[in-house]
Amino acid sequence: MKTLVSHFATLGKNFYTSLAPQGLPDPYSVCTSRAMANELGLSEEWMASSQALQAFAGNTVPEGAHSLASVYSGHQFGVWAGQLGDGRALLLGELETINGSFEIQLKGAGRTPYSRMGDGRAVLRSSIREFLCSEAMHGLGIPTTRALSVVGSDMLARRETNETTAVVTRVAPSFIRFGHFEHFAYRGDNEPLKQLADCVIERYYPECQPNANPYAALLAAVSTRTATMVAAWQAVGFCHGVMNTDNMSILGLTIDYGPFQFLDGFNPAHICNHSDEQGRYAYNRQPNIAYWNLFCLGQALMPLIEQVAGSADAAQASALEALEPFKTEFPAALQSKMQVKLGLPDMQENDKVLIEDVLKLLAKERTDYTIFWRTLSTSQASHNFEPVRDMFVDRAAFDMWLSQYQQRLQAISGWEGRAAVACSDLMLKSNPKFVLRNHLAQTAIEKAQVKDFSEVARLLKVLETPFDEHTDCQTLAGFPPDWASHLEISCSS
Ligand code: AMP
Ligand code: MG
């Protein structure tokens, strides 16, 4: 690997514990993302070398690395959980590339001072899920941390059963979470809190610096990015599953893939995390939870906002104002995502109703979310709406909606000419054919557990370009099998 640098380490000892990875015995490569390697400037040759394998297994430390586990705290399921930290992730350092600077993190490379009761390991099952979903989200155009590789080992870890272990190499400009700020704020450590905020502003949000109150500006900027991210989740039918504040990226990236799920049938109240008994992180609650989490971040930044604002009252007003972007930008971002899903060139008066009506219909019939949108798109392209109509039991209700939709389309200027083609093109680029459904991941995992990694590779290929047809992979775009609904995905990973 090229030489790493370490900006995070320069923050100092308050922020982390330095320690070497504890690698995996007899590692084998499970999968790598060539696209990610390319972006990092890592050659295919090196990626295939035993040097790379040992580095990604945590058995050797790349040149220039300063491996460390960072400390953070957080609210888990709405309750203050105190100190958490990287219990099984190790930051190696950053690679400076022509595409920017990227932190390289090993997940599953042994215990750290923040492991609490955990073993510091990640099992192959959850590592494949994280790897594939990171790259799938990137393929969908949704802000996310990335994955470079998964390396497996026959070493076992105890979960519900014994499972083989793995290390995922994750990549992001930064893995800093809301919880990093909460950690110092709750201890009243305003110095490191300021140091962290200044560092984040300088490196990732330089546009906030000239603001009268840069910390309030930071909160506003994070609100905006988070709004964009969650709008993208909602539009594609993605449930994160564990939106604790320690799983919220300060860069507005989807982070920490655990019991996530892409919706099969459209159920707005769907809960994907088997351990989430109250449904706190149900699909339709994600936007409110994101706002709640931003509020926690606001509270954590309050001492800094107050230092600049001069008084507690002024700081509070300033923080509340900084959270406002979420309230306006989330609905605006979601609306614009739904607009392109429908292939509309702009938003008009009644379009909101058109969107609401179709979602109501999907919810009533639990219509498969991904297949509905893709079939609507291909129907639009072929002028044959029978396949999408066939998805509904209540055809009269669907026909009523379709006729309203078609009236709206036909009113677009130039509809008889190029506008119709532009509409179906837009739809085919906005409604993916492939998403990482639970059963697809499960099938790939079961094969990988007997050392057949071909299905992981096949899935990666379609998920990297999920809007393409991939006609040879038709089965990956089908309805979930009956057994899929019995899959229980918990936090255990
Ligand atoms: P998560 O629910 O995956 O976001 O994890 C919450 C906290 O538990 C974080 O501090 C993780 O580092 C830690 N954690 C999760 N699994 C393990 C494990 N197997 N070993 C050590 N720490 C873990
Ligand atoms: Mg986490």
- Give the quaternary arrangement of the chains: single chain
Largest sheet: 6 strands, antiparallel
Ligand list: adenosine monophosphate, magnesium ion
How would you describe the shape?
Answer: globular
Domain count: the total is 3
Give the N-to-C terminal Cα separation. Answer: 28 Å
Element order, helices and strands?
Answer: EEHHHEEEEEEHEEHHHEEHHHHHHHHH
The total beta strand count reads 12
Structural class: alpha+beta
Name the beta content range: 5-15%
Number of helices: 16
Residues in helix, %: 40-55%
Q: Point out poorly predicted stretches.
A: none
Task: Output the keywords.
binds magnesium ion, single chain, 16 helices, six-stranded antiparallel beta sheet, binds adenosine monophosphate, 493 residues, alpha+beta, 14% strand
